[in-house]
């Protein structure tokens, strides 16, 4: 099936909520979509589920939390994100965290932020996905996007909160199983690389994982790891471009999404009401 060109929705409610598990998820998966929305005048709120306390090399947990949070905030500010929200759940432990509790947190956020559009992991695209944090965020947010509209569905906070429902969803993943839309981010790629480079702590740890695999395979990556530890920019360019380069040697870069947008259904119902 030919993928459609992803376009910014035409609406007066130009508010988007982006839900991710980790600090670097935004730029590795959907940074192009976010910058496109922001440049079109949208207000974007990003919610990070975990504290990324283990995503570092040669740092203790508390230092890792501080470093990753500071770098996350800097990266989001560089993109022009309006607001950042941290749920501060333990990283790589969401598999043991209650899906219902996480859903309740997202219900509150949806009702507070009142987004027209939600961007998050695809709950149905587990292809090549080995991160349980990503899966838990995907499933919990997917359910929250309809339960937030029930007046008897509680969030976490006490007291009555008026129900609210988003209209559109843009789902991303490591490999979206049934994609519908494509976004050309070629003109934004340098901007995405620069912002990703701000995640220095996570990039060094990512390079360390490759170094460890090299040790297992008997391949020396000492120079590579030393270079990344000194300057992450070339490694940032490598992973940002690779994740968006769908054809070998292609000069263009793309983000792929599965889009669900109820605006057509709402329009038809409105037209019927007028008859």
Automatic annotation (TrEMBL):
Record-level Gene Ontology MF annotations: hydrolase activity, acting on carbon-nitrogen (but not peptide) bonds, in linear amides
Pfam families from the UniProt entry: PIG-L (PF02585)
Protein name: Unannotated protein
Originating species: freshwater metagenome
Lineage: unclassified sequences, metagenomes, ecological metagenomes
């Amino acid at each position: 099936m030919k993928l459609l060109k992803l376009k910014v929705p035409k609406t007066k409610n130009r508010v988007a909520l982006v839900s991710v598990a980790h600090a670097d998820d935004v730029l590795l998966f959907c940074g192009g979509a976010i910058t496109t929305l922001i440049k079109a005048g949208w207000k974007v709120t990003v919610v990070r589920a975990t504290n990324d306390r283990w995503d570092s090399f040669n740092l203790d947990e508390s230092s890792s939390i501080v470093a990753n949070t500071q770098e996350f905030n800097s990266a989001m500010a560089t993109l022009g994100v309006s607001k950042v929200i941290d749920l501060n759940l333990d990283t790589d432990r969401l598999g043991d965290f209650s899906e219902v509790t996480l859903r309740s947190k997202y219900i509150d956020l949806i009702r507070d932020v009142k987004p027209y559009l939600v961007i998050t992991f695809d709950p149905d695209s587990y292809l090549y996905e080995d991160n349980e944090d990503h899966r838990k965020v995907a499933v919990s947010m997917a359910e929250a996007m309809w339960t937030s509209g029930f007046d008897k569905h509680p969030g976490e906070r006490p007291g009555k909160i008026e129900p609210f429902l988003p209209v559109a969803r843009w789902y991303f993943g490591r490999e979206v199983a049934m994609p519908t839309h494509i976004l050309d981010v070629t003109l934004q790629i340098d901007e995405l690389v620069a912002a990703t480079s701000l995640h220095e702590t996570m990039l060094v740890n990512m390079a360390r994982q490759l170094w460890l695999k090299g040790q297992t395979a008997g391949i020396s990556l000492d120079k590579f790891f030393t270079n990344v530890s000194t300057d992450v920019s070339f490694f940032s360019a490598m992973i940002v471009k690779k994740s968006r380069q769908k054809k070998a040697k292609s000069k263009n870069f793309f983000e792929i999404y599965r889009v669900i947008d109820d605006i057509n259904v709402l329009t038809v119902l409105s037209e019927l009401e007028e008859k």
